[in-house]
Write a structure and sequence with these properties.
This protein is mainly beta and about 70 residues long. About 10% of the residues lie in helices and about 30% in strands. The chain has one domain: Ferric-uptake regulator, C-terminal dimerisarion domain (Dna Ligase, domain 1, 2-Layer Sandwich), CATH 3.30.1490.190.
Length: about 70
């Protein structure tokens, strides 16, 4: 389990494997948090020759059915 901080003033928690991490989209209308399978870590490391030790990626918006 891993803490997920999305700047909401409280912590959410996600189940992740030992060497895994997750990225999310957060609906600012309904508060639903959805896991997405997008990560550019390997690509950024390859392009920059920079070893990334940690990162965060957060998307906030509104789901189609909440508009």
């Amino acid at each position: 389990m891993r803490e997920v901080s999305l700047g909401e003033g409280y912590q959410r928690y996600a189940l992740v494997g030992e060497d895994q991490h997750n990225h999310y989209v957060l609906c600012v209308e309904c508060g639903k948090l959805e896991d997405i399978d997008i990560c550019l870590l390997d690509e950024v490391e390859r392009m920059t020759n920079f070893k990334i030790l940690s990162h965060s990626m957060e998307f906030q918006g509104i789901f189609r059915n909440c508009r």
